Amino acid sequence: MRFGAIEAGGTKFVCSVGNSDGILEDRVQFPTERPEVTLAKVTEYFADKEIQAIGIGSFGPLELDASSPEYGHLTTTPKPGWSGYPLLPHLKRAFHVPFGLDTDVNAAAYGEAKWGAAQRLDSCIYITIGTGVGIGIYAEGRLVHGLVHPEGGHLFVRRHPEDGFPGTCPFHGDCLEGMASGPALEKRWGLPGGALPEDHPAWRMQAYYIGQAVADAILLLSPKKVILGGGVMKQAQLLPMVRQEVQRRLNGYVNAKAILEDIDEYVTAPGLGDDAGLLGALALGIDAWKDR
Amino acid sequence: MRFGAIEAGGTKFVCSVGNSDGILEDRVQFPTERPEVTLAKVTEYFADKEIQAIGIGSFGPLELDASSPEYGHLTTTPKPGWSGYPLLPHLKRAFHVPFGLDTDVNAAAYGEAKWGAAQRLDSCIYITIGTGVGIGIYAEGRLVHGLVHPEGGHLFVRRHPEDGFPGTCPFHGDCLEGMASGPALEKRWGLPGGALPEDHPAWRMQAYYIGQAVADAILLLSPKKVILGGGVMKQAQLLPMVRQEVQRRLNGYVNAKAILEDIDEYVTAPGLGDDAGLLGALALGIDAWKDR
Ligand SMILES: Nc1ncnc2c1ncn2[C@@H]1O[C@H](COP(=O)(O)OP(=O)(O)O)[C@@H](O)[C@H]1O
Ligand SMILES: Nc1ncnc2c1ncn2[C@@H]1O[C@H](COP(=O)(O)OP(=O)(O)O)[C@@H](O)[C@H]1O
Ligand SMILES: [Zn+2]
Ligand SMILES: [Zn+2]
């Protein structure tokens, strides 16, 4: 049996086909253009794939309330053409199979829980530090939606004492995303993250913000695993600094061996590398087929 | 059928008996002394009550992993005699009925979801601003535990620009609890909250911290209802100020009618008043009986 997986990002779309063991057989990738153009490519890709169901992990914000007439629509995104776009209804017209849908970061958290760093655990959070910052939440064996869906990328972090950067978030200025996303990093230091040397002070500052957000999320949610992905986390020196900052912030308050002693396994890179979101989408498709 | 409910607080214990509709028939209350003294009173109270199960909402930190040999023990509390105390095992020896156990704030969130302000919703958070600050989480129809249990009372809030108070938290200084608990309020202004006039600047500052924590929790978790209880929230002027602060912080980012228009119903006082925790404990007892 084969299932379709769509990672619908604001920058690029990835489509793939995989089986129920989480093995991806094939994939394509293309930049995100206007919805009609992009979805035509998605539809073309899956047309001859004989898939039983499709799972989608999408950029947002998204309407995820299954009882809403706008279920599966994008809501108010600045991405041209996508605001209010009926992503799921459009795909449902093209393919008469069960669909699973969640946010990109929830999908990534789910992928990690199924086949990655959080296997056999009933909770984890997945934080991406990329063009945007997002936090996916898997708690008590379920992906968290609630009123809309989690938007933890905008947590109100404390400013680093030596940081005069105003932040890039159009809503909050110096929220987590405003201070620690890839574009914020680039604007603050005048070079993209990938071009900064390993020992640049930028990384301490990144760790200050990311570690604070991780500590806040641990306090509020007590996840069994914290997974950090996204382009900015490609800097291998960053993860150990984040772990240090998490321990410094919590200061022994959360009395758990995972945090006090085993933080290298507790705050970790994705077990699935860059495929966490895509494999999570696959898992959502498999679930949709099981629940059909 | 009758069920026992225990609200085990660091200051006082409340024991009660109720039915499956959430009606409490009777109750007793006594100060929290050393465990042996306190639990002797609990045992005496329930001895002749013919209850089918007992639910407990307890102060913590608590071991809530049912597979741990320390399940139901207090862990590292500064409360004399209680550190490591086997609360649940002790009560299980006295009463051979099913037991339900959760944190005090999770119990309160559950009570509100069953019979209070979050009825018919599958998520809510309950924040108590009292001697301590705690955040209980009910998400996707389940109480959240995870690695230990949520400890959102210690979120790393931003300092108010006019606040020079160092904070009272022995671990973090100026975390949420360190800045906004009842004792922090009293230490900062030299008078307990109940003795400060309604128009005192203390309340704006309280709202600044509490509103920030609520905004962070909304971003991270997207609950369908936010319920604010505890002694400090007895100040009726505080809740509207908190709502204002939540909206100011989020600044329209979370595009949900509940937040943008209906915040008076969204961020609200407990529907069960001071009985949220006790009724939540009752609900945990009822669940334990159903799952027996
Ligand atoms: N090796 C790297 N080191 C630091 N930053 C990087 C690196 N690679 C990509 N980035 C930054 O990460 C961001 C892109 O994040 P990514 O997760 O790849 O994509 P997206 O968030 O758009 O899905 C960009 O701002 C880019 O500058
Ligand atoms: N009316 C009030 N106004 C402001 N603060 C109050 C009021 N009543 C109690 N408090 C404060 O609330 C705290 C006690 O909180 P409470 O929720 O009643 O108990 P606990 O947290 O110990 O269970 C104390 O610090 C007290 O000063
Ligand atoms: Zn923001
Ligand atoms: Zn603290």
TrEMBL record, chains A, B:
Catalytic activity: D-fructose + ATP = D-fructose 6-phosphate + ADP + H(+)
First-level EC class: transferase
Cofactors (names): Mg(2+)
Any coiled-coil regions, as ranges: none
Entry-linked InterPro entries: ATPase_NBD, Carb_Metab_Reg_Kinase/Isom, ROK, ROK_cs
Keyword 4Fe-4S among record annotations: no
Single GO MF annotation: metal ion binding
Keywords assigned: ATP-binding, Carbohydrate metabolism, Kinase, Magnesium, Metal-binding, Nucleotide-binding, Transferase, Zinc
One Pfam family hit: ROK
EC numbers on record: 2.7.1.4
Signal peptide: none
Record-linked Gene3D superfamilies: 3.30.420.40
Assigned protein family: Belongs to the ROK (NagC/XylR) family.
Protein name: fructokinase
Organism: Cohnella candidum
